[in-house]
Amino acid sequence: MTLDQLRIFVAVAERQHVTQAARALNLAQSAASAAIAALEDRYQTPLFHRVGRGITLTEAGRLFLVEAKAVLAQADRAERALADLSGLQRGHLRVQASQTIAGYWLPRHLVSFHDSHPGVTLDLTIGNTAQVAAAVLEGTADLGFVEGAVDGADLAAHQVALDQLVVVVAPGHPWAFRTAVSAADMLDTPWVMRETGSGTRSAFLNALADLGVDPSGLRVALELPSNEAVRAAVEAGGGAAALSASVASGSIEVGLLHPVPFPLPPRAFTLLRHAGRGLSRAATAFLGGMGLPDLA
Known about the structure:
Blueprint: H1 3-15, H2 18-24, H3 29-43, E1 48-51, E2 54-57, H4 59-84, E3 91-97, H5 99-105, H6 107-116, E4 120-126, H7 129-138, E5 143-146, E6 155-163, E7 165-169, E8 190-194, H8 199-210, E9 219-224, H9 227-235, E10 241-244, H10 245-253, E11 258-259, E12 267-274, H11 281-289
Parallel strand pairs: 3-4, 3-5, 8-9
Antiparallel strand pairs: 1-2, 5-12, 6-12, 7-10, 7-11
Helix pairs in contact: 1-2, 1-3, 1-4, 2-3
């Protein structure tokens, strides 16, 4: 069997649709169908059930999908290793970052790297801190950037920047024009929070705990999956929220949000890499371009 046959099989299996898979791979539908048929004929094993116009994986197909993905992942690693030898004229760098970093801090570094190495393909994926850590551990991301604290024997973590959290409310909130808000006051208002696993959420809750406030006593009115959704909900009067100053600054400047006089400690932006894997030349160059050659 060939790698092209495996790629076609995986694409069809993931979409359960030959035409959509062929389109994604820029192939004719007949070529995709022929590749699947060749695999099934060669090994006398049906990989798909054909029911009307639809297809679903057989039990053999489900088992084969796991192996096919593993082979393609190994082939991708081999290709990237060879690409590294070309002096970064080609290559692939996979970065995963949590939302605040991906939206407000990382883009300038991505642009700078692309300008220096236009032949290297950059893939940026956004997730919360827990998802980024998992991607680095699994090897689906070469580098991860997070805001939250991360534990793991196989993860190497390095502080690369500092960020400031700020508590914000809408103009009509009772805290909007207060000159002081205490730690105990934190329990007296509804809160709009990011989801569990978010670095912003964990940093805020840890700061409250350090101030003697039990985070479980917070009145969480809404849990939302993005900084922008949290900001919009607070602007609409949904309660208070803790956001990165970079996320909230535009709304503060135009008066849609008011910062609350409740200082929070700065939090670290952290680089994650797998402790047991060497960095590719593309990843090393990326960190060097960020002014972090000692971490490469």
